[in-house]
Amino acid sequence: MLYRVEGIVIRSMDYGEGNAIITLCTENAGKIGVLVRGAKKVKSRHAALIQPFTLGQYVFFRNNGGLGTLNSGEIIHSHHPVREDLIKAAYGSYACELLDRVLHDEETGSFWFRQLSACLNALEEGKEPGVTINLFEMKVLQAAGYAPQLGACIACGREKPDDELLLSPRLGGVLCRSCRHNDPPAMEVSMRALKLLRLFAALDLTRLGNVDVKASTRDELKKIMRAFMDTQLGLRLKSQNFLDQLDKYNI
């Protein structure tokens, strides 16, 4: 059966001699694997279609589910500037790998498609990559059912002033100081970071503007979101290790 989908390449791997298998996050057909014959050969007309972050229209044959075989394709947006910049590519790779690990095959992907597309567009446009990725992570947590509770205390349910709140990745939200015994390692959080986390929870990535965030707050947000991602999803991603190396050398 012949399929025509609009999708973003979230993974590309060599297969056999000169072939490649790409994983697409599509708007209406979930996550799909497609074999692209001859894509790695010199002067292949399909070479550009297998590049990471590429948004394109893909036409492929597939029988009874499983792997499809590409018939033709057309690039809609290559996201070339993201691939050519080390920092942007690192964050883009993390977003794609995260989505690949969270999104199951054939799972309806309209929400994920829109968020990933917005994330890659924001990176290409030069918006702060750390803030962009933290917002993307928040959308992933929400869609996966692990949205942090950022209003009332997650233990007692009472609303407290922001300066009396801590963050508990283990419990999944804010914790008042009276309830700290429920999670002694709960994290301190600045009022500025907490306000931004609430903004992330309410904001769709497609509406992200230019957010001016101090370096210290960016570092705090990165630490907080990393704690929530590690605790709630427990994923170990190769791209995250690379981002950690960039941080280590202040790149």
From TrEMBL:
Family the entry assigns: Belongs to the RecO family.
Gene that this sequence comes from: recO
Keyword DNA damage included in the entry's annotation: yes
Keywords: DNA damage, DNA recombination, DNA repair
Function field: Involved in DNA repair and RecF pathway recombination.
Pfam families: RecO_C, RecO_N
DNA replication/recombination mediator RecO N-terminal domain sequence ranges: 1-78
Lineage: Bacteria, Bacillati, Bacillota, Bacilli, Bacillales
Superkingdom, taxonomy of origin: Bacteria
Keyword DNA damage: yes
Protein name: DNA repair protein RecO
